[in-house]
């Protein structure tokens, strides 16, 4: 889970990646606090600045329908409507 | 290993993911203490809030029978009945 | 590298995983000190409690002969007879 | 995202990798501060010392057009022209 | 990048892995300082104790020519002749 915090433009790219949109995502806990540094993800479903999104990371990100396997390792797969999480981390460092 | 701590709803998604259920999982040690921040996983076997589950992470999560490879990186693959672990971490930071 | 520290039982599982054995593995340095929290791995070669084992993690764990790709991310691939390591970590945090 | 900080030469290699260029990449946040230690990546699009680049890590790096899957886990896929990121991490450790 | 610091022997293994050599690798920064604990990698190009090597980690390690995909997650792919890295980490924790 993360929030869209920026855009990235890169004219010189691996051929297959032309036409794809790159976003900066800030990974977060359910309460919105940041977890790790921002990373770059591909987006095809129109996520915009400030959206809470579900991101698939690692090579599974390349399992996008209709496209040969692309050399990408992060893909926005959902724009979150709502979440409900019960506080369980009382004793944990999580 | 982790515990189901919440649900996530996202109407706008990558086409292949419609109909799948998304859960928040809190990763844990065998003694129940939290390990890392919660993450989002797909569930097809009916895990519910508070269940202890086995989760496959990374692109292997996409190896689900009967489906073309989906862009998902975490899948609930088992609901734990019981575990038995012998305390070995006396000297370790683990 | 790690040590088998426990067992996990889960009746409700993804269909393909029935019949497989799940073990708790404590990842370690060569000197036996713990590295990260324990994780769950599949075992087919008969590792038992206290065995030092080689574990393949990530989606490569699904490259098991004779089986379609399973949704597993950790597989015991060897039971260690012996190791020889020369102390090099004098200056490192490793 | 990272910056090219050096070169690596290795004559004895796995057969398929001969002819490929290896670079040292320093991974960074959008503000240029370093994130983790430098790592080695393959480059085919002519990135040079000091260039800001987009790097695909993990097995997706092997999804390079026109080549059988190579045993590489990091590939430079873009040379960044510009980025714009809005400061959001006021409360986070990110 | 890392240095070969030891050997591992394991007679009882997954069938496909017999005949392969297992080495302990200490992952390092370009300046030789240790980064994480040592891990086990497969070697086919004859790396020996003390050699500086390039290691592919994760499932891409299984992309070895002439072999069906093996359940391995780390492969020595190059023995380093030389590197040149310019100090850039003045402000970073990297």
From TrEMBL, chains A, B, C, D, E:
Which superkingdom? Bacteria
Checking InterPro entries in the record gives: EutN_CcmL (IPR004992), EutN_CcmL_sf (IPR036677)
Cellular compartment(s): Carboxysome
Q: Major place of localization? A: other
Q: Is Manganese there in the keyword field?
A: no
Q: Gene3D superfamilies, from UniProt?
A: EutN/Ccml
| One GO CC term, this protein | carboxysome
Q: Which UniProt keywords apply?
A: Bacterial microcompartment, Carboxysome
> Is Transmembrane helix included in the keywords of this UniProt record?
no
Pfam families attached to this UniProt entry: EutN_CcmL
What is the protein named? Answer: Carbon dioxide concentrating mechanism protein CcmL
Q: What is the lineage of its organism?
A: Bacteria, Bacillati, Bacillota, Bacilli, Bacillales
Q: Which gene name does the record give?
A: ccmL_1
């Amino acid at each position: 889970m993360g929030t869209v915090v920026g855009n990235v433009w890169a004219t010189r790219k691996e051929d297959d990646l032309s036409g794809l949109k790159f976003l900066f995502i800030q990974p977060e806990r359910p309460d919105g606090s940041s977890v790790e540094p921002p990373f770059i993800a591909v987006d095809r479903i129109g996520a915009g600045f400030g959206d809470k999104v579900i991101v698939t990371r690692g090579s599974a990100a390349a399992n996008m329908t209709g496209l040969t396997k692309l050399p990408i390792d992060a893909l926005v797969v959902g724009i979150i409507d709502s979440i409900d999480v019960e506080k369980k981390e009382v004793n944990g460092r999580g």
